Every structure is written in C-alpha cells, then in structure tokens.
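Look over what follows to help learners.
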Amino acid sequence: MNIRLRLTRLLAATAATGMLLTACGGSGGHSSTSGSPSAVPGTSSAPSPAPTAPGTPGTPGTPAPTTPAPDGGTPPLGSALLQPMWPFTTLAQAQAWERAFHSGGHQPWHLDPDQTALSFTQGYLGFQDVGRVSARTVSGRDARIGVGLSAPEGARGTAAVIHLVRYGTDQDAPWEVVGTDDTTFSLTMPAYGSIVHSPVHTGGRITGVDESVRVQVRQPSSTAPLGTSCCTAAGGSAQPWNASVSFAGADDPVLTIVASTGGHISSVERFTVTAVRTG
C-alpha cells in the first residue's frame, strides 16, 4: 500500500508541474507569441511614429512657439506668445504709437483690424490686387480677417486669413499681424518663430492646378524684399512644395516669409505667411 500511495502522489505532482509550465508559456523562458509584453511604467512598447509631412491642409500658419522670445517683445494671446510681424517690431514701438494717438490722433487705422490687415497685404506685402475684406471674426483682443481680390467682379474668394492680436494690454493697444490661418495653401517650413539664416529652405502643401509659388523674405524696416525665389511649379491635392530663398540685409528681429500663388485671374490669388527670427 505504501508503494502504491507513493506512486499516486508522484503522478499527481508530475501533472501539476506540467500545468504550471504551460501557464508560464513553456519551460524555455520564451514569452507567448499570442500576448503582448507588459508595459513598464513610464515607457511605451509601441514604435515611434513616423514624422508627419509638413503643411497638412487646415494647419494654422501661426502655431504658438513653446518658449517666448528672449526680449519679451511678443504680443500675448491668452497664455501663448506670438511673433510681432507688422506693423510694429517691438512693444515699445506700439506704445509710442499709443502716446502719439492720444495726444494728436495719429494714424487711427491701427485700431481697426480690417484696415490693418489690408495695409499689411497691400502696403507691406505689395499685393495691390488684394484689397477687399472677405471675412471677419473678432473676439476680444484676437481677430481673423479674410482678404480677397478687389477685381474682377467675379472674384469673391479669400486669398488669405490674416491673424491679428492687440499688441499690449491697454484698451487702445494697436492691432498687430502675427500670421495667417492656412487651409489649401500652407507655409510650414521653417517652423513659426524659429531662427533662420540665408539661404532659408521653405515649404508646405498646396491644392490647386498649375500653381506657381513665389517666396519672399521681408522685414518691416525695408520697402523691398530681402530675397525672392520665383517660381516653383506646384499643384494637385495637398501636394508638397519646396523652395530655397537667399536673402541679405536682415536688421529687424522678426522677418516675414510670404509664399504666394496665382496666374489664373491675378498674379496673386492666394498667399500664406510665417514669422521667423534673426537671432
């Protein structure tokens, strides 16, 4: 009886050991191929995502940089800091205009986001045919002003949506252009607020047929562009475009890179801008 009892116990222990090995995925120490490994806290077992192509349609042209400019001279928009593109290059300039306006009514158009957007388009960028406000959204100290072709009469679209904010905290702080909101034509390279040197490599995405992209580098203190690249053939649906622009004579802290396309009914039918820094 003792021998039989020992044999019965031995068979039971062997069966239990086999069940334990099966539950652990086998006796060789390999993980089961049907399950995923357990994640370690603070890490991820998923592979890194592939880089996203620049200039996806609908991407705003003025994403806020993660850090402010070192001189603190950028206009606030909520908790974000945006680059002052035009007409003022520093907060001190904007405050000087406020004093001149209070004392003698100097250049009251700075208080009108529509007029500021049109002056930016026609006076600064030199797009004389784009002289009509096509859309308007103003919310507190933030404005989006659509501008479009003045002629021909059949042209009623929007060439660009200009993004403006009040430059300063005063009630009479002037409107300042900080970028554009982009849809079918974007300028995402170089990154908004980044430091650039000549030549600067530019690019984005465009939707259209037989497009011709011209790129310029501008600064508020100069009437002529600092550099121009013309022209890059483009077209299709959300297709990438790229161009390299050499420039010289950059003195202002913030430069404007503007890309435009046209040639169907006007030399400039759509445009997009971004702000970059010189150092």
Notes: Residues 2-23 form the longest helix (22 residues). The radius of gyration is 30 Å.
